[in-house]
UniProtKB/TrEMBL annotation, chain A:
It comes from Ursus americanus (American black bear). This is AP-3 complex subunit mu-2. InterPro entries: Adaptor_comp_med_subunit, AP2_Mu_C_sf, AP_mu_sigma_su, Clathrin_mu, Clathrin_mu_CS, Longin-like_dom_sf, MHD. The gene is AP3M2. Keywords: Cytoplasmic vesicle, Golgi apparatus, Membrane, Protein transport, Transport. GO terms for biological process: intracellular protein transport; vesicle-mediated transport. It comes from the Eukaryota. It is a peripheral membrane protein.
Amino acid sequence: MIHSLFLINSSGDIFLEKHWKSVVSRSVCDYFFEAQERATEAENVPPVIPTPHHYLLSVYRHKIFFVAVIQTEVPPLFVIEFLHRVVDTFQDYFGVCSEPVIKDNVVVVYEVLEEMLDNGFPLATESNILKELIKPPTILRTVVNTITGMEKGETHRELPSWLPTGQLSSGALAKDWIDAIIDKSGSTITAEIQGVIDACVKLTGMPDLTLSFMNPRLLDDVSFHPCVRFKRWESERILSFIPPDGNFRLLSYHVSAQNLVAIPVYVKHNISFRDSSSLGRFEITVGPKQTMGKTIEGVIVTSQMPKGVLNMSLTPSQGTHTFDPVTKMLSWDVGKINPQKLPSLKGTMSLQAGASKPDENPTINLQFKIQQLAISGLKVNRLDMYGEKYKPFKGIKYMTKAGKFQVRT
Amino acid sequence: MSSNSFAYNEQSGGGEATELGQEATSTISPSGAFGLFSSDLKKNEDLKQMLESTKDSAKLDAMKRIVGMIAKGKNASELFPAVVKNVASKNIEIKKLVYVYLVRYAEEQQDLALLSISTFQRALKDPNQLIRASALRVLSSIRVPIIVPIMMLAIKEASADLSPYVRKNAAHAIQKLYSLDPEQKEMLIEVIEKLLKDKSTLVAGSVVMAFEEVCPDRIDLIHKNYRKLCNLLVDVEEWGQVVIIHMLTRYARTQFVSPWKEDDGLEDNEKNFYESDDEQKEKTDQRKKPYTMDPDHRLLIRNTKPLLQSRNAAVVMAVAQLYWHISPKSEVGIISKSLVRLLRSNREVQYIVLQNIATMSIQRKGMFEPYLKSFYVRSTDPTMIKTLKLEILTNLANEANISTLLREFQTYVKSQDKQFAAATIQTIGRCATNISEVTDTCLNGLVCLLSNRDEIVVAESVVVIKKLLQMQPAQHGEIIKHMAKLLDSITVPVARASILWLIGENCERVPKIAPDVLRKMAKSFTSEDDLVKLQILNLGAKLYLTNSRQTKLLTQYILNLGKYDQNYDIRDRTRFIRQLIVPNEKSGALSKYAKKIFLAQKPAPLLESPFKVDRDHFQLGTLSHTLNTKATGYLELSNWPEVAPDPSVRNVEVIELAKEWTPAGKAKKENPAKKFYSESEEEEDSSDSSSDSESESGSASGEQDEGDSSDDSSEESSSEHGSDSESASEVGDKRTAKRNSKSKGKSADSSSEEESSSDSESESESESESESRKVTKEKEKKKTKQDRNPLTKDVSLLDLDDFNPVSTPVALPTPALSPSLIADLEGLNLSTSSSVISVNTPVFVPVKTHVLLHRMSGRGLAAHYFFPRQPCIFGDKMVSVQITLNNTTDRKIENIHIGGKKLPMGMQMHVFNPIESLEPEGSITVSMGIDFCDSTQTASFQLCTKDDCFNVNIQPPVGELLLPVAMSEKDFKKEQGMLTGMNETSTVIIAAPQNFTPSVILQKVVNVANVGVVPSGQDNIHRFAAKTVHSGSLMLVTVELKEGSTAQLIINTERTVIGSVLLRELKPVLSQG
């Protein structure tokens, strides 16, 4: 199936190659570079590129292209899903998945890749099994990635901090994401909630866990970790499983669409360009809406400004802001929202002289976090352990985050 | 050795160096070239030294650096000899890295690679399964053609390995060997066939992968395993699931009839629409025959459904395509939700899934309509995702949702991504043509866009408007006027050309404007784009024909300009038009028709999706579908067969057997109890009840009618049989007797021999004979008597390893049984074990018979086997197996015997004595003993007749590797106490309360495994005890009922592997109703 793998950084260097069958010359990547040039942006590079003798399937994560070389028909998702699994594994091993880290740990990376595929067919892809076969480097493990705004799939690391160390424990973190598009006037065009339950289990023996919900009906569509017994869910709506060790994603869910989604924030905006003058006005205010009395934290506002904007001079009432005149990206790190004193960002934009005003106002992307609240209303009823005699620590936390939250202006 | 390879290296290095030097002399100074090279050499030299070192740490460092070189794509092949020496290193870390190196470079250094082979061959025999597996992996990854036979051998061996992990690796190795040497195909198919039968979920995915790669057309190999694969599917690892599902999709399309005829959904609606009613009727008539879905077809659809919940996008997609391609139309709907879920994943996953949804949504709008909003575009989506979403939105548009969609489109048109905005305009155009209600709205909207600031948007709008107007001309004079004005500002050639064309077509509707436009264009003609020039010429020609008064001069001016244009197309066109429209003496009859030619009614263009290029004939979810070209190795999805092929090919033998076996076993009535009890099945059929057993029955049970039993024995057809079986059973006797006295046993033996001969001579004599034997066999008889009476205690004390009677045997319901059966029983009693099975409650365990050799493949010779659950008479570590041979041909089959044996290590087998001949329709049962070494490995051997040899296998269910043990509750608890921790496996069972009555549990457990009941003081705890046949390790099974409908199943044993296998087998049995 998968012949070879090339890792390519953003400047177009192949910094790692691995072959599972006979060696494929790295010149095959030239086709990829061509496509990359055509696409102008990394995001737009097509995931599947045919070449005369091979097919190149790639994923782009952490500013690295993972390019798999295929020779025969194969379900493309098979390869793509696998490549993502590779990235996840690296991240699990090294905390971050970046070019320098991979280069520093090239031997471990190589061994892991060797175990993950045999003759191009996946062999061991579960990270707990891999870790038994190949020890992760220890020093790096302590350097925990603190970069905010991590990709959605990779936030396991929020878990262990609140679990007692050195004790048999099992914890779960239920996280809701709100995906929404809010239109100009503030009404919701689409909004949906999806979420995951990430678990961190440090138990000995063969514990058999069951997790039940107060309101399982909320869950409209679910996908499970392979350890979950599907039959039990079908019949009783109970998650029953023998957990693997460590961190894993137990469940991903989607909350049924009938339930109205409570939007916890609102954005007041006034962005205007004038045809005649080379100055535009910019003003946004963020405020809490339906938060069930919880504080909204970690608010970050980003917006891609139109090309005509040369610079912005803004003053925030709190937090810090940056504007990159090259990429035209405005970013405002707000922090917590204080309902008494709403944060706002005001100022002017200087526009290119003589150019006509942009037709479209920029879209505002919002990130935020609400602790101790699952906005969907999902509640875990209880977590029980069978099969072992001891009493473990059990904990469950809730959190709500913004997923793809966009406000059109 | 080490110095040797060192020298070799230096030599080769030096050689290369001189070569290089020679080449270099002419251009660069030789010393410079040399220096450069030698520094490189030196670097590797130091690695070599490190590899030579005695310290593991130095070696490890060196290996790490070498692997680093490989990863960067640098050539490290030079170090091969130095590295390969470390292949036998004790340090596992080094070893791993050496393996990595070997696999990379062996192909380039074939000769040297051979040095490492013996290490792998040794490792293949390692007791550690991980080492065996990795040795096989590396060995098969070394692409050196010389070792093909070694690889073949290793694969064959590994495919029978005890460890499923090793077998999985064997399946992977099959593909590797196949790509190395396709000649091996036939042999590899044999291995695949064997591995397909494997019940381990670990193996299933890999072997199906091998199947797909090596012999995807051998669909016949799948038949027998189809149901098993369907049932295992949920537990297979996710990557295997994908492969299996794709394979089963193809399988289903060849083996089942179409389920689409009955509930033809939307797809056929269109077709039917055009068909006349009569045709329709005919069609329905044809379809009158009610369609019922093959249960196997249903099984596949049902068993894949849970996988829609998989976290693995590839699995979900695989199930989705399976539903799309093989399930009834009415059931396809359930996949949409899961596919929409995948849209929340990474961009690459989204891309593929959206493509597939796009194809589906063309054919079946309804499926995705409820999820319309999920396809709304976000400004952060990459362009390719945006375009695909747009495509889907267009496909989903209908009268009901179009207004919402148009509002959404308005936002998109304003997008900063102009390419996307242009695509949106195209989309609006398509919506306008598809849904007539909104055509005007769309047109108006597009006209508004004409005043957009962005040129690309305007140009795109013009093009789309042109197409729309063409479809419904008339009444749109206003728009045309508006567009004519645009000509002053718009510069995009396509748009200008479109406007000119429109004006030309509609010149009669805008009589005032058209000549003016031509005037302007004439002025700017020379500076226009070629595309525009052509349209100017066209416009001029059209106006000349309709309004020559105003435009004659203008047109001639333009034609003159065109005559000297640089572009030959334009000169050409000019000449053509001039000839056609300007009347002169030369122009023929054609010019009369010029107006008709230029102003003909032109058919409206169809606005089609750029995406809809027949992608749908590719199987969804494949690479070919994504690329819309046939990828190498793409396997076509065949059309449904008109008539389903024989569904019985998927039947697994057990069912078939019941039918076939019945008529053949004429000598015996089908009495499961009897089957079960008869220990030495040689006595079955006509050859049974040798005088030995008779005499026993006679003497031991007084109530026995002697005449009857001798009658039975008189059926005996050939004396050979008698003596054969006799001696065989005698072995058992001997064994029993051994403990009493050896000489006694021997004398018994000899006496029986005499007897058997006399037996054949006359029946009447046999009675007296048996009388006389009483004397010689006194001891044994005593024992039998004890056995018959509930006095088993001493027996079990004496012969604990041989037989394991349950503590409280119940007297057998003798009178109810047929005399011959009694005779059998008596025969058994000699070895004192018949009581073993008489567990506390009279639970009959139906005998599960398995096919050993099907009559089709055995050329008329059919063989079945089952496990009689008796201690084996051939050896106390053996499991006894009874084989029934049937002759289904019309001629004698002669000399049936066992030929070559292929047994895994340690396994032993006691074969039955050759059978001289088997009459047509005849049947004979023989007994064998196999020492399975407490594993579920398959025993393969050849069953031979005079003319043929057939390969057959016996694989024991784990429950048959046990013998019941009598034990008190106290002892049980004590033993259990010693077998905790690692030796304990447990699981929770959920089942309806009626399944937890003591008798049901007992029956179920005993059905699965040959265990003895331990009397229990508590109602809610059931205990069973047994020991493994080979090692005699205890196997303790506890079923503890909990409140509600759950129960805990615990197994304690030293043999944890068997324990967990047994647990796995017991669990489903106990939990099902």
